[in-house]
Design brief:
The complex is a heterodimer of chains A (268) and B (422). Chain A is an all-alpha fold. Chain A contains nine helices and no strands. Chain B is elongated and about 120 Å long. Chain B has three domains: 155 residues, Glutamyl-tRNA reductase, N-terminal domain (Beta Polymerase, domain 2, 2-Layer Sandwich), CATH 3.30.460; 143 residues, Rossmann fold (3-Layer(aba) Sandwich); 75 residues. In chain B, the strands form two sheets. Chain B has a six-stranded parallel beta sheet. In chain B, strands 2-3-1-4 form a four-stranded antiparallel beta sheet, with helices on both faces. The chains are: A mainly alpha (268), B alpha/beta (422). The interface between A and B is medium-sized, with 23 and 29 residues.
Amino acid sequence: MEILWIVILAGYAICVAQSVFALTAKRPVMHRASLTALGIALGAHTVWLVIKGIRANRCPLVGTEEMSAFLSWSLAVFYLVASRWYRAAALKAFVFPIVLALATIAAISPDSQSAPPPANQPVQAILLPIHVGLILLSYAAFFITFGAGLMYIIQERELKHKRLGTIFYRLPSLDTCDAIGSRSMAIGFVLLTVGILAGLWFTHLRYGVYWQGGPLEIFSVATWVIYLLLIQARVNAGWGGRAGALASIVSFLIVVCSLVGVRYLGHA
Amino acid sequence: MNIVLVGLSHKTAPLEMRERLAFNEERLRDALGELVDREALEEGLIVSTCNRVELLASTPDGADRGLGRLTEFLCGFHRLEPGSLNGHLYRHSDSDAIKHVFRVASSLDSMVVGESQILGQVKDAYQAAVEAGTIGRVLSQLMNRAINVAKRIRTETGVAQNPVSISSVAVELARKIFNDLSDKTVLLVGAGDTGELAARSLIEEGTGKLLVTNRSPERAEVIAGKFGGATVGFDAFYEVLPSADIVICSTGASDYVIRVQQAKNSLRSRKRGPVLFIDISVPRNIDPSIAELENAFLFDIDDLESIVENNLTERLREAKAAEEIVEAEVHQFIKQLRSLDIGPAVEEVKEMLSQMAASEFKRNRKRLGGLSPDQENAIQEVLLPSLVNKLSHPIILHLRNAARDREPSELNEELRKMLRID
């Protein structure tokens, strides 16, 4: 499995280096090599998750190692989808550093020893991974929102300063950044909602109550409320553009805090 | 086989002279037919644009004769005195000609380096010559390679990347703010030429509605009519300001035509969506403090010109890299051409026949009996070489003719089989 991590991390590292460099480079830089590296890394990453799941006889969503691995995998996949939909290859430079960081955390984390509490019924056994998986997927979507928000702010700055450097030509249009941001936020919100509901249902089935007040629960619901406010603001107050971008960036910090909080305070 | 090129461009001749020497479409076919007489010039191509007129040909006779013939033809066709073009014409042969062709196709010789029109014009000229039947092996190889070099330079260097005219900068700005231009409205205030040009570029790029307003309604009608837009009264255009996504201002007014408060109100009632203000007037017609409003982007003529200048400098820098690519490609192409030369094959034939003759002589020496040194000399130095020449002459003639149309590698192959060379 260690070999897989080396392949994965090397591949993502190449992607990060190439995409960041390409943002300001005058000539096209190793685009195809980076694409190949991404393909190989993502393939290896998928293999790792599958093997892990088979070995542990459950979804690989328990513990820091597995959650980080799954989160970085989802983020890489979401990037591929977003960049196809919107022709925004520059997004790679903003998203893959996070992918690499999360993958590194997964690579250096110890094996997830803890198994989830034994499920009493088959429904519970499915609900828990759905709950965790959906919440992680929503965080991946919010990371995309973060990347799009950063791109928007940089592009807007280029326009306001009227200098139009190389990065101006590499980044997509403001409208596109905004569209990626709002769509990923909407998708993330839906995933988060369903994930929380799955969690509530699981807790109810397992423990008889809907709410136990554990760290993951609190952080997820807090995140959910914040994004609800953000979405409301976008729709009602016409927050598009810069305000929306700033909001996206703030939301990233929230997600990170959630993850860190859950990591260190344990989870229900 | 030599490649020769004669021509003049915006760098060497004034517009009137270029116009005088131009070949228009109808006469091009005839001109090509006249140019390629199969004696002095075997293949020919004519490129005639508003910035250059060039004649390219391949000649079996030596570069000087070819160049002379081209110059003769150019003067003759346009009924000019033979010496009248001196000082304006450039003449290139072989590697210089190849380099020139590559450079022109890649837009390195154009008025604006990196422009995209010239490649299409070169392709058209090539197509016309193909249809006129004046393209053979050499020029077809050369032109196809030139087109590939041009494409390579476009993708591998930044020579054609960033916009270098006010209009194209305006278009780029619009595309980087708005993703989809088809539902965006352009408001043109005033009737200046640059403003109209910018509006035209945006419309060609695919913007939606065009609104034109001017102090003189007739002028507004004229411009609106040209592009299929609508006019708005000059006193009333503030009312349509909120619906305008792109505002181009180009009046002769000496004071601000669009002020901060008007822009603020307009932005507020728009709800969402940024506005691109382009102020091409001098003195400025749009209050500069509008630039500080959120969702408003303002570019005045100085901003646009400095962007153009930066990009031009960038292009010139990239052009250096492009020139290096051209050099390398010229070297490679010449090597390729040489390998296709049948000269070596001819030498081989002669060599082989000479050796056959020499070895037969040696083998049958005894039968000849005693020979004086003079006789022996006469046989080896006169008879045998003369025989070899006579025998190889029809073969070589055939080779030369065949090389015009067929791949020399094929010919070499056939030759080997024919003469049983291992």
